[in-house]
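Bench log, entry 3. Co-assembly request; chain sequences pasted below exactly as received.
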Amino acid sequence: MSDHDHSHAEDHTTPPPEIQLRIKAMESLLVEMGVIDPAMMDAVVDFYERQVGPRNGARIVARAWADPTFKARLLKDPKAAIAELAMPGISGDHLVMVENRPGVHNMIVCTLCSCYPWQTMGLPPIWFKSAAYRSRAVSHPRDVLAEFGVAVPPETAIKVWDSNADIRYMVLPERPAGTDHMTEADLADLVTRDSMIGTALPLAPAKAAP
Amino acid sequence: MSDHDHSHAEDHTTPPPEIQLRIKAMESLLVEMGVIDPAMMDAVVDFYERQVGPRNGARIVARAWADPTFKARLLKDPKAAIAELAMPGISGDHLVMVENRPGVHNMIVCTLCSCYPWQTMGLPPIWFKSAAYRSRAVSHPRDVLAEFGVAVPPETAIKVWDSNADIRYMVLPERPAGTDHMTEADLADLVTRDSMIGTALPLAPAKAAP
Amino acid sequence: MNSLHDLGGMHGFGPVWKTPEGVAFHSDAEQRVFRLMMGLMAGGWCDTDGFRADVESLPLQVYARECFPANYLAGMEKQLERRGLLMPGDLEAWMAGIKLGPRATVPPAIMGERQEVPLPSLFRTGDIVRIRSINPEGHTRLPRYLRGQVGTITAQRGIFDFPDALAARTGRRPQPVYTVEFRATDVWGPEAAANDRLSAEMFQDYIESRVDG
Amino acid sequence: MNSLHDLGGMHGFGPVWKTPEGVAFHSDAEQRVFRLMMGLMAGGWCDTDGFRADVESLPLQVYARECFPANYLAGMEKQLERRGLLMPGDLEAWMAGIKLGPRATVPPAIMGERQEVPLPSLFRTGDIVRIRSINPEGHTRLPRYLRGQVGTITAQRGIFDFPDALAARTGRRPQPVYTVEFRATDVWGPEAAANDRLSAEMFQDYIESRVDG
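Structure output for the full assembly:
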């Protein structure tokens, strides 16, 4: 991350000291009042910090790459297919997979706030909430992708999915070339968070792979 | 004007001290460079401060009230009709008069900036430039009029004119009742700036008038 | 509500920027605010639609700072105020050592009693439809850039509560939701790419009518 | 440019406020900035369309303060920079007593040479027309709230230069301008009054096509 990007993340998530104090005071007061439960909140934070995240999505994508029948089930009924993977606490409710294929590149955004598939991808990166992304992802998707380093040829259609209601979208990227003999676990390592948002392609397999 | 309104006008026209200083410095530098001409600028400010203003518009409206044939010419060709009044420097170029009549109330706004009929009405009041007015004049004209103290009955159509191009609009208000025997000069005193924007009705004749 | 949160198609925010993978929280404040929100939502002291409406209603200059933890805290405070738990000034008083009076520890029901039967489905996949031109002052999930546009229904998503009604506390108004696909050139004009498409969910109340193909 | 200056239909700015009659300038700064603008425009150092474009492009948080003299000064500074008269930092240097290098005292021609012949008039009074959905990143005088809407031409106003092209410095593109009237309920939805109407000028390039009545 460049200093520029670091400074953005800090600007957008570090309120002035008086607001930081206010956040802490609010929690203390509400705990004192018995309105919120610290143990429950600790568990939720732990869940999203340690158990849930883009690795869940990467497992799903890798399985779909490795097993065409799973992929077919995943595209048809994501919830049922994800249940097969038996990931604790991950339900895939209202999840829709959008598949990249030759000539079609998908990309997700929430122009009105920051809706995101928490269950399979964890909490959204802060740039996903930014005005810079939300404003232009729908009107200038090719420019946005270029800024993310993804060149989409003119003949490829870009499909942008604005998550304005209860449906959550996840991109199923194309399996990279040269990965025919990779294990499902190794394939999962190629699947980045941004590739499931649609603002990146999966990693290429290491050149040195046998 | 209430303190509230006074504070608004001040907020929107009094920059912080460093910007006030910068405005003065810019003028000094540009005069030194010979790019702007102080005498010419003095003359323009004097023109808009002393010679031009809503009184011009009021004269036009009063004449239209007093002389139906002038009114007909004014609605048909404002520039030619205004020329009859021989007001120095006032041309009525691109001016369009919109006539209030029973069942129709007109109101003008510039949602994109602050276009206004300078020639016949002087410089716009600062509230005409405000987001509060520009945002709601088009979408909630009845609420805006109510806030200005004008109650428009439901059966009256409101026509809002957004001055987004080169045409400038001026409202020709309805002649108030009880003014049959008033002179044209006295009629002009009933015509307020806001009545020609459409956010007010003309003043009622003094109750004590003969 | 037509305000700054409705960002689709706005200009002037500069190029996008990114953050590395593997970061759940970008700051301590972000984590704390998330934690607090989870606690309040679990207890019924904050609801998604009402919270969104309250964040959208922040003064525009505050929203424009894009300091998300600060905005979310403000939204939660408004939610607590609506439920009568904490009024403006209460937190300051408590921080100054003043004991607050007794409060209900169970949140009041905030939704009206009204529960409509689900609207019958009026449209089908493949239908070409025009989206309504509406501009509600309250919360809506119909972005401005799609109002009045014509698109094709590509999926029926089932029955969902209508967020505009939930946020307005006028009751539950369950209805069909459709995915509608639009041509980028229809929405943005000829400068968009001819083969690009935009999709969004449309609650049935957002759809004006079927149009001829 | 889709930004905050395009205020028609936005919510959240509170009730209107007013100022008394008979006031030409509300502050010394307002008068000084007006004076400066008149001087610069007379000399060709600032032009209406370019100036509007530059004010609209101010950072959104600056524009949102609605301090008009400050915004106009910033717009004029940008105009002088575009004409090579004063670069950022020059005024500060001069204020610090540093002598500036020699400058051209005649403004450069900022408009391209291109001068198109006026477009032929395609529409007539009484025509029902649909306005284009365009979202140019540059300056435009087509407000967002009227894009895609259907209205009736009520007047032909003659031939005018196209402000979008003037601001973009791509040359003169003179064309017919029409006044188009819209139903408030078409534009804002059923909450508007059925008998209310909105009118705006439409350059011919803003009109998509005639539609069946």
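The helical segments of chain D are 28-43, 48-56, 60-63, 68-82, 90-95, 163-168, 184-188. Chain D touches chain A through one residue (CB under 8 Å).
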